[in-house]
Design brief:
The protein folds into three domains: about 70 residues; about 60 residues; about 160 residues, Histidine kinase-like ATPase, C-terminal domain (Heat Shock Protein 90). Helix content is about 55%, strand content about 15%. The chain is built from eight helices and seven strands, in the order αααβαββαβαβααββ. A five-stranded mixed beta sheet has the order 2-4-5-7-6. It has a two-stranded antiparallel ribbon with strand order 1-3.
């Protein structure tokens, strides 16, 4: 909660004052008024103790509920902001893609027609290569905007993670240990685009590597869980059964300010030429397309954990 919200303690204090006053006045009216030299006894002390404990419990429950509501409001605001960015991004990306089509096609024709002029053909090849890289950036923007074609397939997510393990270990290098914990009872089948699934895990692996230049450990865990209404609301997800895949590093971590903008396209804390700032935004768009959710938790100096929530596929008929 922002600042210091004393609402839970005010409610608890009012309850405490009313409860203790009621007990003392009731005891005096029933016993004290008819007894000379009356003093509160053991039963009165027990009643007061019960009220004190109840007041503390009320304060804790009210504080938790206020925190939950604030988390939901923040999540809804962030989702609306990203949806607005997605609509703006989609329009720009489509227009830019049309321009790139002309550039790439022209560069291909120019390149193919310069076989007898290798120096000029090399320059045409550079133009073509730059255009193709720009096209891939546009593709990532469309994934963020949820306007990229997807090809969902049913597969066992744990089996696919295990198949990706050698590639992820290679991307991390020898100075970072890769640890998998894919326990629990299956099945672990999801219905999503397998290419995007692989790309997401590799993207998070590369991010973790960049966050741990001195080495460390990357831990990937998966587990089945059920999200009820109060658990799903902050994630902007529907209640139901999910496969949660968490990717946790021991890197530099993020501040709260950075986490609030982490899913925005082109936002990055990396230096020049070390990233486009589209990695997490692409993951956000992909998880929305998969009807899942993504959560980000980070502590500066301790590391970052990204959790992907995939709806479990319905049992095969």
């Amino acid at each position: 909660m922002q600042g210091h919200d004393f609402t839970p303690y005010k409610i608890a204090a009012i309850y405490l004052f009313a409860g203790v006053s009621y007990i003392l006045v009731s005891d005096w009216l029933v016993v004290g008024s008819a007894t000379a030299g009356w003093r509160p006894g053991l039963d009165t002390a027990k009643g007061v103790g019960f009220v004190v404990v109840s007041a503390a419990l009320i304060a804790w429950l009210v504080r938790r509920e206020l925190q939950r509501r604030e988390d939901v409001i923040k999540a809804a605001g962030a989702a609306q902001r990203l949806e607005a960015l997605g609509r703006l991004t989609a329009g720009v990306a489509h227009d830019f893609n049309n321009l790139l089509t002309v550039v790439i096609n022209s560069a291909e024709l120019l390149h193919d027609g310069l076989d007898d002029r290798p120096d000029q053909q090399r320059h045409a090849g550079a133009i073509l290569g730059a255009g193709e890289r720009a096209a891939r950036l546009v593709e990532n923007l469309l994934v963020f905007a949820r306007q990229h074609p997807v090809h969902p397939q049913r597969f066992d997510a744990n089996e696919r993670i295990e198949a990706l393990e050698p590639l992820m270990a290679q991307a991390l290098g020898k100075h970072i240990l890769l640890s998998l914990d894919l326990g629990g009872k299956g099945p672990f089948e999801v219905l999503t685009d397998p290419v995007q699934f692989d790309s997401t895990l590799l993207n998070l692996t590369v991010n973790a590597r960049d966050a741990m230049p001195e080495g460390g450990q990357l831990r990937i865990e998966s587990k089945r869980l059920h999200l009820n209404g109060s658990q799903a609301a902050p994630l902007q997800a529907a209640p139901g059964d999910y496969l949660a895949i968490s990717v946790a590093d021991q890197g530099e971590g993020m501040t709260d300010e950075v986490m609030q903008r982490a899913f925005e396209p082109f936002f990055t804390t990396k230096g020049p030429d070390r990233g486009t700032g589209l990695g997490l935004s692409t993951i956000f768009g992909y998880m929305r397309d998969a009807r899942g959710a993504v959560a980000l938790h980070s502590t500066p100096g301790k590391g970052t954990r990204v959790t992907l929530y995939f709806p479990l596929a319905a049992p095969a008929a």
